[in-house]
Amino acid sequence: MAHKDVFFKTEDGIKIAGDLYEGGEKGIILLHMYTTTRQTWKEFAQELQKKGYSVLAIDFRGHGQSDLNYNSFGDPDFNNMLLDVKAAKKFLDKGKNIVMGASIGANIALKFANEVDGVIALSTSFNYKGIKTRDYVKKINKPVLIIVSEEDIQSINDSKEMNKIIPKSTLQVYNRKGHGTRMLDRETKDLIFGWLEENF
Asked: Which of 85, 131, 166, 188 is the most exposed place for a label (fewest CB within 10 A)?
């Protein structure tokens, strides 16, 4: 199924590039890992679209076709990626929205959790590139699906602790699936689809 390239501006004037996969009235925003682009979501986004979701995969500022260059970023710049998601939600403009992120994208998604209807976090942590999530996690009252691979030292302990803190969270621990979007095999995708049907 086809998608279209879209561009929109954040409230601080940064141009963000995205792939829009048009579907139904439920929106899913996809946030990629550090140094990658929206292309890493292509296959998964198409599957979501076939299931009737409207999907927007964005290039974070500094990445892909969006403005700026991550090589010059400090902690404030990484934290400003939150504005990219805010603009993406406004652009997608659906009645219900889920944000799904991998690694740095997962941290941003958790910070944005109470602005949407739920979050899927792949390989998240309490602090990545200065994006600190602990204070936000304590306030989340939306359904959250946390997925992590056992050998991912950076994420495993933080993911388990988050699962204890967030009341409506579900934790799935896999083994030897790697980090972030690399975990998206058939088993992981089917788990995500099941969670979406239950919670969304």
From this structure: 188
